[in-house]
Amino acid sequence: SSMLGYFAIGPYVNIRLFENPAAPSVLVASLGALLMLAVALRPRWFRPLTAIFALYATGVLYLTA
């Protein structure tokens, strides 16, 4: 649930504070939120979803570094 909170606040910070474009900020956060919801709603899919989330997180780090 803390990750979902981050994904809810993250786009606002990226758009307002860092003046990033709105569409990519919302899209990237929405993808992360969907992955976290899938982990919460489908516990049997935990292993494959964590691998996908790791790729997602690596992509976010690449974009923000």
Question: Could you walk me through the main structural features you see in this protein, from its secondary elements to its overall organization?
Answer:
There is one protein chain. With 65 residues, the protein is mainly α. It is built from three helices and no strands. Helix 1 (2-17) packs antiparallel against helix 2. The longest helix is centred in the middle third of the chain and has 20 residues, at 22-41.
Instruction: Indicate the proportion of strand residues.
Output: under 5%
Low-confidence stretches: none
Count of DSSP E strands? 0
Arithmetic mean pLDDT: 91
> What Rg do the Cα atoms give?
12 Å
Tags for this entry?
65 residues, 3 helices
Summarize the model shown.
The protein is mainly alpha-helical and 65 residues long. The chain has three helices and no strands.
